[in-house]
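Notes from the pairing session

We agreed to fold both candidates in a single pass and log them together. This is the raw record for the first candidate, unedited. Please don't reformat it; downstream parsing expects exactly this layout.

Candidate A
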Amino acid sequence: MGVKNYDLKTVTKVISTVNTGLSLGAVPTGMKRWVTFVRVDNVYGGENKLFLISNTTETAASTITLASARAKDRITLQAKEHFANPPQGPASPDFPLFFIAAAKYLTAKTNRGSVNLFLQYFDGGD
């Protein structure tokens, strides 16, 4: 893939059924936002889905249908489950999970209840 950047940043946020911007701002022109690690703790008492979404605004995916259509990653969690990708811990920036394109926003939404999200990322070129 050839992507490498060691200026890694993190964000921690509680995500719920309301589409939530991660307060990262739009991806700068000429760059991509590369996500290298995702950890999710499902605090909801049942099965839950987390959608990590690429949007044109900070809070555009108002429905699960829109969230699903725009999702870059979808994680299904059982009650009180903890999830990490990659499973061994924070990943090398050499192998990102996915990216968000320039001028887009990374947002998140669940289908049922709250989750705690920890995300590692960097902004860089191709």
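Candidate B (folded immediately after A)
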Amino acid sequence: MLEYFVLLPLMVVVFYSLYMTALFPNFLTYTGYGYFLVLTLIFVVLRERIKSNYDFETPAYWEKNSELVDIVMWFYLIPGFAVIIFALIYWFKGKEERKFRHIFASIIGLILFFIYNYAIFELFLGYSR
């Protein structure tokens, strides 16, 4: 169960973006919280079920695990990108004097979000037992 703690920084970034953006109404903010929490719980339960039903040395385990990890990675990545992009647009709206620096920092942040998301799901959770 300790391998799922790597999901915390990913959830913190998305939750912080949802929390700090006044652009989203409260209903949408709470729906976003619920979406990521339910997605995480479903992922943990399904992955543990795969672990208990299949032997680690069989190809069936690795196929099921890889399919689950790929699907959940995209379910995290696409809404997470959308939330962060909308948050960045809202945050940088009206700051004219340092616009290029903020845009560059936000692009670097989105790239790091993608790399961290990919590394967690594909490299860590996709190949771990």
